[in-house]
């Protein structure tokens, strides 16, 4: 129910642009505004749609963060950060993955219109070690 007719859906860094014509029961019906060749594992972006109902950390993210700690990486870039709480959750997962995780830097990727306002950005920056604005998704 987060999308409505007329909304844009971008696939594979906007290589394919879709327009929502309807949605019901968790299914979104779209028409293509252009043509593109798609492969697997492509990103999907719906500008202006609030993602607050989606978890910030999926099971795959937990595995990836654990791997990053095991490899003693210096930092992680956290995608689709919406709030300072999202950064705190990532730090908690890193800390639980091992002692090195407590020392890793977390760079918050700002990829939604909801997080690009001064108050939200300030709150996120209080928790993160840096911000990266992903303007292609905005």
From TrEMBL:
Residues 2-138 form the Pyruvate kinase barrel domain. Keywords: ATP-binding, Glycolysis, Kinase, Magnesium, Metal-binding, Nucleotide-binding, Pyruvate, Transferase. Its cofactor is K(+). It is an enzyme of class 2 (transferase). The keyword ATP-binding applies. PANTHER family: PYRUVATE KINASE. Belongs to the pyruvate kinase family. This is Pyruvate kinase. It comes from Prasinoderma singulare.
